[in-house]
Amino acid sequence: MREDPAPEGAKCPPANEKSAGVSPLAAGVLRRNDLKTWTKPAPSLYPHQWSWDSAFIALGLAHMDNRRAAQELETLFASQWDTGKLPHIIFNPDAPPKSYFPDAERWNSATLSSDAPSEPHTSGLCQPPIHAIAVLRIWEAARGKDERRVELARSFLRDSYPRLLAWHLYLSTARDPEGSGLVTIYHPWESGTDNSPRWDAALEAFEVGDLPPYTRRDLDHVTEPSQRPSDEEYNRYLWLLELLKRARYEEAGIYEAHPFLVKDVLFSAILVAANEALLEITAVVDAPDEERTLIEDFIERGRKSLDERWDPDLKLCLDYDLRAEKPARVRTVAGFAPLISGGLSPERLEDLLGTLYSPAFAGNPDLSHPLPPSTSPEEPGFHPRSYWRGPVWPVINWLLWWSLLRAGEHERAEEMRRATLDGLAGGGFAEYFEPFTGEALGASDQSWTAAVALDLLAAAGG
Ligand code: 2M8
After folding, report:
1. Closest ligand 1 atom to 447 CA
2. Torsions phi, psi of 153, nearest 5?
């Protein structure tokens, strides 16, 4: 399945070629998907602005055009809900009709919730909080440049800080009324790893009621439907959406009755890492001490609660289903959450690296590159071509690379960086890759893939 044929030569140069400057090919993908103030995740499969895509895109843009990188996030922040939530989709009123479903009309968030912006229309969900990490990257890329650029970046940080703080507060309160340190998600779409087998048991546990009719649009853009979630999964996704609408996207009501309430360890770990970035931002913007203390507390609480979700047999961290009151015992890349949240004991780090480089993940001898499949090939739910059920995702590699660096694992990080760039050299900037053959799958010219390539190349001084 290819969404749009990759333009001639849109392949990333091999990592060992040390491209001069950031890769012009990756930059070309971002330029082609650029709609001036924000970037489409892919040319036609995803015609709207997606939250965590935009954060990754900003990371890449920071190396091309710092001001444009800041603009990407400013556009997103402008649609922040009154609750502090950053919506997962901001709908593009100029997208071709019937190009994506569920559309703004189906979400109907502005009518149902006074917390939602009246326009542009947004979805009612959120996605993992990469944003503070991207804001900090914009600052890091500007530092050391001319005084004007530094000042512009500082002023962007000042404007972003209250937005980010409100966002993190929302996640730490409305999405964690228990004060557990873990974020509750209401829908697999919030995890960003939509059809991962992490969610199978929780999705199967409820009955789908009467659904207003709908037509899937995602399949119009692909040739192989098995690479996208199944119709059965879509019905469940749409039913959850129906229930969220009935609750008028109101948190307390959702918490009371919603059938899908899961503590997502990957989301929670990203929040810890994002809180670390936010703490660095407090120093740049001279934030009050009480806010620093609050963020430090969030970091500590997040790490402690992730530690409690550790499975000593699988040597991975597991999501927790609040409705079933049990962990989801499935080996997926989300299990490496503690690597992302950091602050690990040497033993825990060794255990995580042991699992990461075992045959269950990046150490599998049949892989085309030593990169972790999104779901372990040893899991019954593994599928090498189906979306988040097995393919390798460059954005996840980026997260693990960045986390390995932060953990002081420089050689492993470099290996991950090179393998990711080599994979892109073979397959272009695809959405995801078949783990054994390296075949490009999903959308081609996927913006966040190009963006993380730029960041990975920049890390080598490329
Ligand atoms: C995918 O999710 C959307 C729904 O949000 C979809 O499948 O239609 C996921 O990979 C998600 O993580 C990503 O943000 C989005 C856009 O790239 O696509």
Report:
1. 17
2. -65, -40
